[in-house]
Amino acid sequence: MRRGVVSVAVCVCVGAGGVQLLAQANRFLALTPGFPLWAYGYKTPPAAPEDWSGRCPGTRPRDCDRPGGMPADTTGEKLTIPGSGRSFTVAEITAPYSPADWFPEDHPPMPPIVARGKPESGFRACAICHYPNGQGLMQNGPVAGLPVDQFLRQLADFASGRRKSADVNKANAFEMAAMARNLTPGEARAAAEYYASMPFKPWIRVIESATVPKFTATVNGLFLQAEGNETEPIGRRLVEMPEDTYQSNMLRNPRSGLLAYVPPGSLKAGETLVKTGGEGRTQACGACHGVDLRGTATAPPLAGRHPGYMARQMYDMQQGARNGDGAKLMRAAVEKLTEDDLIAITGYIASLQP
Predict the structure, then answer these.
(1) To 10 degrees, what angle do helices 185-196 and 148-160 make?
(2) Where are the beta strands (DSSP E) in 156-292?
(3) How far is residue 46 CA from its own chain's centroid?
(4) Can you tell me the distance from the alpha carbon of 192 to that of 274, in angstroms, rounded to the nearest whole number?
(5) CB pairs under 8 A, 24+ apart, for 178-184?
(6) pLDDT digits (tens, 9 = 90+) for 62-110
(7) Helices 148-160 & 171-182, crossing angle to 10 degrees?
(8) What digits encode the pLDDT tens for the residues 151-173?
(9) Looking at residues 224-234, what average pLDDT do you find?
(10) Rounded CA gap, 208 and 19, in Å?
């Protein structure tokens, strides 16, 4: 079993053996050396991790959607956002096949696959996770400004199985693979061209601190600040959460960005690794991604993007869960990185101007 990859063998226990299964599941991630819990949206190992890798082998993405990932509409009240002339209920905001679009003036007309998805096959609208502007939250990929060819290559890797998650409990990664298998070439290109047309805007504010606000982890891998002003030690973590819990989690405001807390000294350490390779621990990122890390013809833009997302991708590459052509080129750059290196590198890159 590769380090960091949950073995599906523990999922076949039944009856009395189920007790043993639960015990194994409860402690698995805690015992996995180097698994970056924080990058995958865990504060502590999940109480009952599931194996989603085999639950959606076909092309019905909805079969892979983890229940309970969105806020419930308890009142039916119409809500508003400053600067928007629109109002929506929570049910409308989180509608899987027509999520609310607060600021249609911020983006070109959305193609149907982005705005509505395909209800007949359970294909949720791209905008429900990535937002109409492609900025997204910590548990999703930030897709705005990705070149069309890179976008299409990643969809092809998802569809073929060459791109997976090292965490088989991460349901939305396997939903994304089912989505990629469900897309027609025309739909894939329409989504790619739409998101490529919008530059990724400043979205992450990185803060070096020995403490972080107390926070909880949602079922879909989103960290949310707890009520009040209590803090806790940051430890060896990068903690990413919305600037404003209500605006992001309840209203899904596409103009309200993210905070990323990193341990003191992380940004300087990350700058050294990114610019010099750290005496052989990695390779200078600018050689492929451009001196400003805003991407090249062959490598995607990195500057200013979600640190948790970037850390997941590097860890997935370390573990062999990503095997596309780009991931193979990255393997030499990531194979020696420690969890502390992932924190430093991604925190520094996230702090840069997109």
Answers:
(1) 140
(2) 204-208, 211-213, 215-217, 223-225, 231-233, 239-242, 258-262
(3) 17
(4) 28
(5) 178/56, 178/58, 178/59, 178/60, 178/61, 178/63, 178/64, 179/61, 179/123, 179/124, 180/155, 180/156, 181/58, 181/59, 182/59, 182/60, 182/61, 182/118, 182/121, 182/123, 183/113, 183/155, 183/159
(6) 788 787 888 999 999 999 999 999 999 999 999 999 999 999 999 999 9
(7) 100
(8) 999 999 999 999 999 999 999 99
(9) 96
(10) 42
- How many Cα neighbours within 13 Å face the side chain of 44? 7
Half-sphere exposure of 32 (CA within 13 A, CB side): 23
Residues 189-209 as b or e (16 or more Cβ within 10 Å = b): bbbbebbbebebeebbebebe
Q: 68 near 80, Cβ under 8 Å?
A: no
In 3D, which of 140, 136, 147 has the Cα closest to residue 299? 147
> What stretch of H or E contains 80?
strand 79-80
- Kindly provide the b/e burial profile for residues 302-317, where b requires at least 16 CB atoms within 10 angstroms of the residue's own CB: bbbbbbbbbbbbbbbb
d(C-alpha 309, C-alpha 313), whole Å: 6
Buried/exposed code over 211-244 (b: 16+ C-beta within 10 A; e: otherwise): ebbebebeebbbbbbeeeeeeeebeebbbbbbeb
Radius of gyration of the chain (CA): 20
DSSP code per residue over 330-349: HHHHHTT--HHHHHHHHHHH
- The phi-psi region of residue 82 (left if phi > 0; otherwise alpha if psi is between -120 and 50; otherwise beta) is beta
Supply the pTM of this predicted model. Answer: 0.90
CA distance 210 to 71: 31
pLDDT tens figures, 299-349: 999 999 999 999 999 999 999 999 999 999 999 999 999 999 999 999 999
Structure-token pair, residue 326: 């780009």
Distances (CA, A) of 125 to 54, 131, 149, 254, 283: 23, 9, 21, 15, 37
Amino acid identity for residue 217 in this structure: A
Which pLDDT does position 29 carry in this prediction? 55
Whether the CA torsion 180, 185, 186, 189 is positive or negative: it is positive
Tokens representing 327 are: 């991931």
Task: Give all domains of the chain, ordered by start, each with its CATH number.
Answer: 61-196 (1.10.760.10), 204-350 (1.10.760.10)
